[in-house]
Amino acid sequence: MIYSMTAFARKQFKGDWGTAVWEIRSVNQRYLETYFRLPEQFRGLEVKLKEAFRKRLQRGKVECSLRFEAGGADESALCMNQDFAAQLIQNAQWVIEKAGSGTLNPLDILKWPGVMQAPEQDLDAITLELMTGFEETLNEFVESRAAEGANLAVFIEKRLAGIAEQAKKVRSFMPEVHAWQKARILKKFDDAKVDLDSTRVEQELVLLAQKSDVAEELDRLDSHIGESINVLKKGGAVGRRLDFMMQEFNREANTLGSKAINTDVTAAAVECKVLIEQMREQVQNIE
Question: What is the CATH number of domain 7-73+124-145?
Answer without folding.
Answer: 3.30.230
